[in-house]
Fold each of these.
Amino acid sequence: MRRVSLEEAFALAEQHFPAGPEALCETLGMSVRYAACVGTEGWCVHNCASGNTRITINSRSPRVRQRFTLAHEVAHVLRILNAPNPATSPTHVPWPSAGPFVNDLAEERVVDAIAADLLIPRGILRVRLPHLPATEREIAAVAKAAGISPWVVCQAMTAHASALGLSGAEVVFIRQDRVDFRRSSTGEPLVADAKGEHQRALVTSDAALSNTASIAYKHETVSLLFVQRTVAPRSAPSADDLRKQLFGEDRSLQGSFAGAIGAWTNRHRSSASFANVDALITGFIAHYTQHWSKKPHLLAVLRSDACRQWLLLVLRAKLSPPRATDKG
Ligand SMILES: [Zn+2]
């Protein structure tokens, strides 16, 4: 059997899109059989000595599922071919009955990610999804063209978030109202409370949380929440929006901040840092984090992202040179 590197495999898949996994089977001389199976999506038997590979796919499963299984089994073989010591790699690779992306085994996750890249290569995603965040409809169109489920598109988009131009993406799998697993492109959760966020997303579907768009998919007892974060907010909130978000009707809370900002700008009016808004904000947050260390309600506001955004707008307005006033 010819040794094909992962890079070669991805290039071949892109060249043969949407039939990447099928083209790889041909290139690698793997035989694929479709048969009615019970309790499994299929399996793969790979003989390391001879290189012979036989893949069996459950013909009873929906077409998109069959293609994912095929890509998954091809990915297993690619992993074996690219293993440092292929002879010790497993030769019999049964497909777990749990389904795509829901197996806890680290190797299965790696294989699923490769499978997604074979089915919807990165280059194709870039061309077909030029506008971000992608809408549910755009993702559905790509999934249809690729002959896969939208969930696989979300998974691939998360894996390649930065290459696509997203500042972050996350998939959260929820099984019976419990987070089964989540994968974020940044390694950090993008949504703090996946459950609450998920429920809100279910209600509003394509909810725009400033620069974060979330889409929720539901299938029987499993749902997937897909979150995309763009670099620039869809529509930047105004200082007034942020003020309302931060303080609501709490005049006293807002008063504490207004007083602190006034004192801080007066104190730094003559210093060099005055012209540097970012330095002014960083200094303000550091100073008041200490100053308000015994006032948790002020600290909670001070440490929020919205507060930094609000400070930026407020200080910019304060620092901008006075406009030429009417003369005469
Ligand atoms: Zn597997």
Note: Residues 6-119 form a domain with the Arc Repressor Mutant, subunit A fold (CATH 1.10.10).
Amino acid sequence: MKQLLLASSIFLVACGAQTDASEPEAAEKPAPQVEAEAPVKPNITSQSLGGNMYMLLGPGGNIGVSVGDDGVYMIDDKFARFGQEIIDVVGTLTDKPITYVLNTHHHGDHSGANVEMKAVGATVVAHDNVRARMGMSYMNQAFGRQQDARDEALWPTLTFSDEMTLWFNGDEVRAIHIPAGHTDGDSIVHFVGANIIHLGDNYFLGMLPFVDVDSGGTIQGMITAQQTAFDLSDVNTKIIPGHGPLSTKAELGESIKRLQAIHDRVKARKDAGESLEAIIAADPLADMTKLESFIDKPAMITATWRSLGGDI
Ligand SMILES: [Zn+2]
């Protein structure tokens, strides 16, 4: 349990499961003396994805950006404290305003700068459940803490129930809701013409993923999300994970196999009557040790167990 809690506290910084106001920042900031000696490094950087598309990197969830005559369509907006820096970086890419921001889900590292984006005129769009989750206080069992409802100023003002297409900057941009994936409010966003898919936190590249069961997520839904994106992809598709570097269809295919293996291994033991503690002790994910980051193997097994209906 101690190991799980330690992993959890690191996760809270990396994935922003808690609100901005109370988020510990120590893990992201260098010690003061290091800061004084080192040159000032930008937090937010842009990476060209070709044409009119960019990815913004830095602390928090990856941002996808379409720029063009119609303005800026941004997928996710990291944390509030980077709002102005995000706006400044976008300003180096285009002189057009940020028109729409879509939140792939409600977590604070993907929606934290909604207020700042609204202040420059953006309309914040998301699945219905993103708005509902932001207005909800609930007990997060995975981290043993109460999650408070977030300020209404952050909530999306344009929501959809299943799928939404925005025809923007000459592209067809489909937001597809995935029920019960990373959470119950996730969208994956397909820029059809640009051949780019943003998966939000339904895809972590190179690390074990977080399934937020307390927010309606399941590992089965996360597999569905990845399979949906895989089926929409070809060898040239650029895939933006919620966390980690730009990815490919081949890497996404590996991730699907891995998640399916995690699901199958935990399910086989659960179906055979093993307890959660016994499954964790058996270390069925021993071959995935190198993928541990803020989600370690016990946390991954526990989320899978709960996805399968098991109690903790
Ligand atoms: Zn998330």
Note: The pocket of zinc ion is lined by residues 15, 105, 107, 110, 182, 201 (CB under 6 Å).
